[in-house]
Amino acid sequence: MTVNQSERERERRGFMVKKKIPVRKAVIAVAGYGTRFLPVTKNQPKEMLPVIDKPIVQYLVEEAVASGIKDVILVTRVGQSSMENHFDTNLELEIQLEKNGKKEALEKVQEVYKMANFVYVRQGRHLPYGNGTPLLVVKNLIGKNEPFAYYFGDDMVQSRVPCTRQLVNVFYKYRPAAVLAVQKTPQEELYRYATVRYKKGTKINQIAAIHEKLPAGQAPSDMAQFGRFIFTPKVIKIAESRVARKQFGKDNELWVADILNDLARTDKVIAQPIRGRWMTTGDPLRYMKTAVAYALAREDIGPDFKEYLKSLNL
Question: Residue 131: which CATH number?
Fold first, then answer.
C-alpha cells in the first residue's frame, strides 16, 4: 500500500490524526482602566507605565517573542493610542536620530516595531467587564483548533527560560485544553490571588478547581495563579456560553478562573509551577517593587543602583 493510499484508508476509517498546531499567537489583555494608578492613568494605559526605559507591555511582548510567538494581539480600549504608537514607526524621530549619528538609540527604536506582527482590537463597552472578556474580542482571530498564549497586562516574570516558553513546553508534552502559570506564594499574600486545588492521583499538575481570592487561611494550596496561560479555543467557547447564559462570577464579572473551572470538569487543565520570579505591577507598591527588582538585574545600572540603595540607610 502506498503512502497516499494509506492516508486515504485511515481517513476513510475515521482514524485521521489531527495536525498539532504550534503556539504562534499571543493575546495580551490591556483594556483596563488602571484605577489604582489615577491620575497618571487618566490619559494613558497602565501598561504603558515605564519599568526603567521600557513600558510594562513591551516586557510582555518580548517574552512572547522569545518563546517563539510571531503574532501579538493587543486587546485595547478607547484612549490607548499611545500603546499603538509605541509599537509603530516614528519616522521623524528616526530621521533625527540617524542625522545625529545616534545609531544605538535608532536601533532600540526600530527593534520595538520589528519584534512581531501587531494587531489591535478594541474591547467594546457592550461586553461584560472581567479578565476573561478579551477572549470574546479575539474569537474571530483564533483558528478553529489553534492554541494561543494569553496574558494579563500587569504580570512580569524574571526567569532564565521565558515563562511563556515553559508553558508552551508543557502544552506540547501533554496537549491539555489549557495550561496556566502558578507560583508558590506566602500565606499572607494568597488572598490577593486565585489559588488552585490540584486533582488527586495525577502526576502532571492537573487541577480540580481554581478559587478566586479566598479569605486568608481558606486557600486550597499555596499556588497562586497569575497572568500567563496557553489556551485552546475551548476556552473561548466556554466564555461565550457563560455570557449567553448571563452566568457571571464575583462582582458580576467574567472571570478566567470560572471559565477554567468549567473546562476542568470535562478536560485536562494543568497548573504549572514556574521557574523564575513572578512580580505584579497591579498596584503602586508592587509596581515600585518590580521596578526596583528589574533595575537591580540590569548590568548597566544595577551595581550603581544597589550602592545607592545601601547609602539610604533605611
Answer: 3.90.550.10
